[in-house]
Amino acid sequence: MATSGQLMFARRLGPPARLLIWFLIGVSCVVVDVRYHALDGLRSGFSMLLQPVREAMRAPSDVAAELGGFFTRHRLLQQERDVLLAERAQLRVSVNAAKELVRENAELRTLLQLQARPGQQAVQAALLYQGHDWFAQRITLDQGGGAGLRSGLPVVDAAGLVGQVSRVYPGSSEVTLVSSPEQLTPVFVERTGQRGLAAGSGHGQLELRYMPAQTDVRPGDRLLTSGIDRVYPAGIPVARVSRVSRSQSSPYLRVECLPLAGLDRSRAVLVLIAEPQVTTR
Amino acid sequence: MNVATRKAGSWRRILGSLALAVLLEQLPWAGWALALRPDFVLVGVLFWTLHQPARIGFATAFFLGLLADFQDGAVFGQHAIAYVIGVYLVLFLRLRLLQFDPSRQAAQLFPILLTVQLGVLLVGWLAVNPPTSLAVLLPVMSSTVLWFLVALFVRLWHGKSLLDQA
């Protein structure tokens, strides 16, 4: 017989029942998040919680970099300075030329009554965190809605297009990289002007889709954003064609490209914000 | 040592180790280190489920799974479901797992960790995209090694009996 203080029946549910309950909660979470995007508040909460932690955990590598920089040789710095000075002189010349072209372009556009191109404003951001999601490639930046970022803005580094802002939190934001699967970028081939769609293929690569078999594409060609989607400004370098092959079964060429931007290397990037009078989607 | 202080100490140890696991995942991992990074939080949760099943179980695993989903930018529920399955498997095999020494315990944990990771893969596959590669299975190895190290450390530090009273 059961004495007082000893239960005859277990009050707690057994593990299989609890597994089932939590499993159902999990499935409903997935459905609510994928179908209705109703859990963005929870994401913002987590981001507020983890933001200071991530900034603190970035400190050890920053300190190591500082120490490494401290012991850089004087001679090396001088060499680097000379190179940079030469580069600056060259850039000055091209800036003057570009200014002249901008003025001329504006005049021609008014003559032709074309719409003015959207102006650009750039926000500097640094890499905060990289998670491993195996279904899309994303990085987290340390600038968010507070700096004027919106979902859909292009992100570039010195070498080319990095990706597109996909989620914005108050103090941080997530960027989907151009090499992420199913991430589409409208591009044109610099040498021929042929337009096309570059899609991420995972593994840090892109492929140029739907190029008919007689198209003139060669390894080494650069791909630039075409700007016809009104999301990316025209002329940002995206990728370089690495291999072109023709398959027997498909009417299209198989064009593999390597991204130009340092997707897994660059730590400082720029987010381009179009000026508000232009409607971007 | 009376029961109350031992309980408090135990809670402190559990929460401290789980917080440490979350902190370790916030380090700026990149490249190969990122691909091979063991799932610290999962190992922590399963370890305490094994040794303190009255305190750490489904609810903790689910919440930390949501946290893992956030930090990977994945769909909410992807890791949560997988972690909960892992907790169930550990509870199911608990008495068996407790009998083994660290290396054999780690070997027995390997299929459980593999199942958890396959759960992550499956949910992501159904909800978002097909995965791009099987690199998703790399952390299983490193998590197994991490489990071995943790179990070995605990065994050397406390002896066999202390943790297994719950």
- Give the strand order, joined by hyphens, for the main sheet of chain A: 1-2-5-4-3-12
Which structural class do the helices and strands of chain A define?
A: alpha+beta
Question: How many β strands of chain A by DSSP?
Answer: 12
Poorly predicted sequence stretches spanning 5 or more consecutive residues of chain B = none
In short:
The complex is a heterodimer of chains A (281) and B (166). By secondary structure, chain A is of the alpha+beta class. Chain A has four helices and twelve strands; from the N terminus they run H-H-H-H-E-E-E-E-E-E-E-E-E-E-E-E.
Describe, in plain words, how this protein is organized in 3D:
The complex is a heterodimer of chains A (281) and B (166). With 281 residues, chain A is α+β, with helices and mostly antiparallel strands. Chain A folds into three domains: 15-59; 72-116; 120-281, Rod shape-determining protein MreC, domain 1 (Thrombin, subunit H), CATH 2.40.10.340. Helix content of chain A is 32%, strand content 26%. In chain A, strands 1-2-5-4-3-12 form a six-stranded antiparallel barrel. In chain A, strands 6-7-8-11-10-9 form a six-stranded antiparallel beta barrel. In chain A, a hairpin with a 5-residue loop joins β7 (195-200) and β8 (206-209). The longest helix of chain A has 39 residues, at 74-112. With 166 residues, chain B is an all-alpha fold. Chain B has one domain (3-165): Arp2/3 complex 21 kDa subunit ARPC3 (Orthogonal Bundle), CATH 1.10.1760. In chain B, α3 crosses α8 (138-158). Chain B is globular. The model of chain B has no long low-confidence stretch (mean pLDDT 86). Classes of the chains: A alpha+beta (281), B mainly alpha (166). The interface between A and B is large, with 48 and 49 residues.
